[in-house]
Structures are given as C-alpha cells and as structure tokens.
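Form 12-C: Joint structure prediction
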Amino acid sequence: MTKEKKDSTPIVQPIVEKAIQRYGASQDELIPILNDVNREIGYLPGEALDEISRQLKLPKSQLFSVASFYRMLSTKPRGRHVIQFCENAPCHVAGGREVWQALVDELQLEADETSADGKWSLITTSCLGVCGVGPVMMIDDDLYGNVNPRMIPDILARYH
Amino acid sequence: MTTIKSLDDLKKAREEALKKREVKAASGTAQVIVGMGTCGIAAGARETMKAILDTIESESLNGIIVTQTGCIGLCEKEPIVQVVIGSQPKVTYGKVDPEVARRILHEHVVNGKPVTDHVIQM
Amino acid sequence: MKYYRSHVLVCVDPECLKKGAHEIMDALQDELVNQGLNDEVQVLETSRIGDCAHGPEIMVYPEGVHYAHLTPADIPYIVKEHFLKGRVASRFVEEVKKSNDEELSAPTAKEVRVVLRNCGVIDPENIEDYIAEDGYQALGKVLTEYTPEQVIDIVLRSGLRGRGGAGFPTGKKWQFCRASAETPKYIICNADEGDPGAFMNRRVLEGDPHSVLEGMIIGAYAIGCNQGYIYCRAEYPIAVRTLNIAIKQARGMGLLGKNILGSGFDFDIEVRMGAGAFVCGEETALMSSIEGRRGEPRPRPPFPAVKGLFMKPSNINNVETFSNIPQIVLRGPEWYASMGTEKSKGTKTFALAGDVKHTGLIEVPFGLSLREIVYDVGGGIKDDKGFKAIQTGGPMGGCLPKEYLDLPMDYEELGKAGSIMGSGGLVVMDEGTCMVDIARFFMEFIQDESCGKCTPCRVGTKRMLEILERICDGKGQDGDIETLEMLCEQIRQDSLCGLGQGAPNPVVSTLKHFRDEYEAHIYEKRCPAKVCKALIRYEITDGVCTGCTVCARNCPVSAISGERRQTHVIDPDISASAAVFVCRSVTSTPLSLSSFGS
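Section 2 - Result
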C-alpha cells in the first residue's frame, strides 16, 4: 500500500473549485479540469472525481472511464517525484535499455510502481519528442537528455 | 503593443521591426542567443542560460542582449548558443555548458576572440 | 593564454599540398607579420575544408569565410581586405559545398527550409521578429486580395498534401469543409505528435509558432469558420506555453479576434492539451478528446468535414501543413509545386534518430533518396558500423533494409515498398539490431496505445505481442510465423482506424525482409544480432582457457566448474552473464562469447 502524496480531504475541494472556475463546468472542459487537478494533487483522488461529477453533471463511471484512459492522469496515488522514462524505439536504440536497468536497480522499482516511502513513482512514457538527445527521461517537470547509466545516482540525488 | 488594423499598418509594423534590427546591428550591441527548445533544455540549456545571465550580472557586463530561440535542428550539439556582434556574421557554438558559456562571454563577446574549439561550421 | 581575434585554417591535404598549400601558409605568415597582425591572427593547418578541387583553400573564422583557388600572390590583398579593412575579399570566396566530417552544416546544400525557415533564427516569444521575417504578410494578402475560393485554389495548385501522415491533398480537404452548409465550423491543428522519433512539429511549435497561427487563420478564412483549436500533446509543455504567448501577442496586435486587419473577418484560437494518448493523433479520436471523452476513433463516414467536432463541419490539419501555407501564399503555388516529385510536391521535414551520427531535424524536397538522407545529411552510421535497416513513418511504418537505400522519399514510392511516409520520423538501425526485437518493441508500443475499442486491434495486437515475446524468449514454435502473418492481415483489414490498420506494418516488413532472423530465433534458438538475452549462451573456448580456476573461485553464483589446468565449463542453467563479468574483472584472459547454437 503506498502512502498518499499529501493529506487528501482538506485540499481537494478548493483545487477542484479553482479548476472548474478556470475552465467552466461543461463536459468539453473535462480534460483540462482533470489535467489541472492531477497536476496539483499528483493524482485524481476519488473525492475529486466525485466533486467534478457533481458539478459537471456527468456520471462518475464516465469520469473514471476518461481518467483511466489517459496516461498522464492517475487514479492511484503517485510518489512525490514521478520519473517518466521514454521507452520508445529511438531512445531504446540509443542505449535506453541500459539506462532503464540502471533506474530499476537504483530505485528497486519496476514500471508503474511507487516506492514504499512515497518518494518515487517510476513510469514509462511514450516518446517525449526529444529523440535527438536520447536516451531521455523526465522527473516531475525536469527533462534530462543524453542520459547514461552512470548519471542516474547523481540525478536522483537532486530530489528530496 | 501597436494594434494592426489594416494592411498598411501591417506593412508599417514590418518596417519598424526591420529598422529595430538594423539599429541593434549598427550599435555594435552583442546579442547572445540561447537555444531553448525542449532538446536544448534536455541537454542543459537552462543551466547555460543561467550561467550567462549570472555572469553578466555579477561582472556588470554592458551592451549585451540575451535572447532565446527555438530548436536549430542540431540536437546532438545542444546546448547551442549563437553570438552576433554588431553587423558581423553570426557565430554558432555547440555543446555549450556553463563553463564554455563563460568562456564565450569573456573571450568572444568581451574580447572579440571566438572560442574556436566550440564553433559549429554553419 | 594567448587570445587571437581570428583564425585562418589552411587545408594541407595531399591534393592541396600538391597545389601549393605550404606556399600559401608561408605567404600568410609573412604578410601577417608585415602588417603587424601576427599576434592577432593565428594560422593553422587543417584538413578537408572542401573537396580539394578548389585548393589551395583556407577558411577564416569567426566569420566562416572560405577562400579558394589561391596563389601566394593573392594573399597580401586578402590580408589587407579581410583583416585590416574588415571586408570579405569576395572574388576569392567559394561556397562550402561539403561539410567537414565532424560537423553537420545546417542547412546542408540539400536542405530547403520552408517550414523550418525561422526555427533557431527568431525569438519565438517576440511577434516582431516574426513580422520582420514577412510574418502575417500572407494573411494581409489573403484578406485584402483573395476570396476564400481563390485561397483554396492556391492551395490546390501547390499540390500540398497533409503532412500528418495520410498525405491527403490539403486543398481538397478545405474544399469539402467549405462546401458543408452547416455552421458553426471549426478548424483544428493536430499538434499531438506522438510518433516516437518524430519531433518536427515540436520544433515548429516552439521555434516559429506564428507560422502555424497564420496558416490556421488563412485556412479558417478559406473554410468559413471563426473558431480554431490547437490540440497539443501534454508531453510538450514548452510548446503549449509558447503557443499561448504567441496567441496572446497576436490578439494584442489585432491579428486574432474581431475584424482582423479591418476585413470584417473574426477568428480566434484556443489551445487544448492532451493527456497522454498516442491514439489522439487520429483525427476523430482527437475531436473526441476535445469534447471531453475517451480518445476513441469513430467510423467514417460521416467524415469530419461534414460532422466533426461537436458534430459540426470541421477541418483538421497537421502543424507542418499549416506552417507551409503562409509561404505558399506569398511565393505562389507554382514555386511550391516546382519542388519535389510528380505526386509529392514541396518539402518535408524529417527527424533522424537512432544509430546515425547526426541526429536532428532536416527539411528536404521530396525525391531525395534514403541514402542521401542517412549518409549525406545524417553523416552515416554511428561508429561507422554497418547499416541494417531504417524505419520510416513512425511505429506503424515499415522497416526497410539496405536494398531500399536508393528509394526516393515520396508518398507513393514508400507505399509500394511496404512502408509509409507518416509524420517523417526516420529511425536508423545498425548491424547490432535484432529485427525481431524491434518488431516486438513496436508491437509493445502499439498494444499499449491501442484505445481498445475494436477487437481486431485490441485483441489481435495482444496476441501478436505474445507470440513475438515468446520468440525473443527462445520459446518460438513452428507455426508462429504463419500465425503472425494471418493476424497481420486480419488486423489490417478489420481495424477501425489508422492505428490498427498500420499496426501490423513493422511485423509485415520485418517478416518480408528479415525472415531468416525470425527462423533463426524459432528453429535454431539463436539471435543472429546477439541481442535477445534468452538466446545468448556463454561458452569458455577450449584452447584459450588455461584452467587457472580464478573465475570459478570468484563466481558469485558458482556457475563455473573445472579442474586446474583443464578447460572450464559454465552451467547454462545458472546465470551465465555473472561468469563473464567475474572473468573480465579478475583474469587477464576474458571468456570468449558465443551465441547459443553457433
């Protein structure tokens, strides 16, 4: 069982409110709203989906169906820092396999897992569009290119 | 920002934009242009930009304009920095880490001597 | 440390030497001393400035001026003009036709930059930079001189085809949407560039966003709509930011919004972000996503031009398609159609990735061959290894072996060869690539990204992935290849959208061109490229092993056994790779490797 990223109930409501205020309470604004809330909280807790369902007058099942479809939205808690590793061909061919192994070894995590202390989530992502500097990975909003296995410990050490 | 209400306004805006460029070139101002496309950032362009801005500030270097641009297309040479001094042709540098950036500022921008070991032939 | 303000590189390759390169160097040194410049200008020897047909030749930095066909008598003039007066001695200048081995000249002589013309040149967050480069002049021309029908005619005559992958004539697409009577209409820019290896759109969005906006405004005028969307993938946050800044600036100047340029035409654009779904690059899935739903494609008809976004007539084009429009209007459709091949007009951006020396983006006219792109522009294979294959068109593209290197880049030619143009991503693979592993790799991606709506794609790709994984794991069976072929055909025929229809392509093409690798994996349990770990077995070579027992004593998993002074053996059921590393680290005679079965 992974730790919640932050305390849930107290802060979900205002974040959801803010997102709905920003975009408007209509179905075609659903994905921008979900994106904002996911970004703020780190994932989409059940209470957030409940509130959005109520305000947008959409069934919860539909919300869940949309939220679970998109890779960048998560209905499960994620770690404080999310590592997205590009697993596509150009990075793979440029040495991505070895970098992935180094990450797995260093973090003792497999894909889609969150560490027991709630610090790291490791996920694979689709091409990030910086193939010229592959292998590539993103940690939160920081993008790292030309990554080799030896760089992994130093890069990870920058995050607390 | 001027509003453009007609084709004439648009033509005038273009002339003004071109004139501004000429003034910049004629004044001998140095322009340092950092590639800040995502590939540049992945290769460390943010640190390079920071080093340039910090050096300019801490050493009170004058007459230098720092701007950014998108991806040139030489992704494997990122971070890329271009230097234009007055009306001289542009010089493009590749693999510019913070240390190389400082060298470019000191040797090329201030003293007019390019850092040839990092120049990319364009 | 001595600082020189200028450097002169003199080519001393054998051909140039024969023509008198040393005399040129001497003349340079002498003249620089005469003029008191020898402390400011350094003369150096170099190699391969050009192709020595123009020697003796020199290159002067920092300007990068190439002087050729020199005699010692020319030198005093050049020194005076260039270093004293600060002027290029133009009558001696030679254009550099071939780049130095180490560098990628950009643009190369083969590149023609239409879409990429401003990238890396202007500040994308400054609309004035764009205006200085003739920005929005095309829009001005369109709104004051052309009717919407005339604009469509211009685009038709240019021969521009959709650059997102399908290659449908853009002018025709606009015509269909214009012909729909229902309103409101929408124009959408597909900026959901998801093909692995493709980042051309990102470059344009980050480097020259106004070219896309201008193209969209012109398109909206032609179609007759007042609202546009740019659907940009969430993995491009900087592009999203740059677009929003550009839109704000364009609005601030009255180039977006009401009564643009006093023409009475209203139009505005909104940016929508994706949320991480490759399938949303498919136009009906994209529209679904904007509507706040799962990104699942819809059957067509009805086509988007009739019933699109919010069930209204809509036109979707790729970033690159829109970015071409201003130049086509300004320079004329005949100019654009003069480039390329008979059916594929104009230029295309390509992204070179993989095992090639110079990765990056290029823009070339259609018709250039793969060989020219990989070797002339891309510099050839990294570490000078052998070329094995190139995949064109993204994950649903085919892998083409070296027999196809002279294929011209053209929509029809690529189709005939069993691949697609796609968005223009090119992944180069060297001789160390296992083509079965690559096929598995792409199938894994496609399986992951399949939206799940239709059975042939959802289940079919899963079955194919299972078979490919078994094969790479050394568990391939007789009949696997035939099953793969059957599944390929079924999935291609029966899938709802382009993702499913194209999903079999990597397998079909690798089976066609590299069938022997599949057979080796299945029947010989061997990976010819030595990539698939399950098919690699390490053996200690008899005759080389001295029986020193160091490796056996140090192996952490006791995988090695043997008597002193006798050839040792590795137990293949225990982890063999540990033995390799132990041996390499503690002995002076490394194990020799052989792949299972060879």
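Section 3 - Comments
The radius of gyration of chain B is 16 Å. Chain B has one domain: 26-120.
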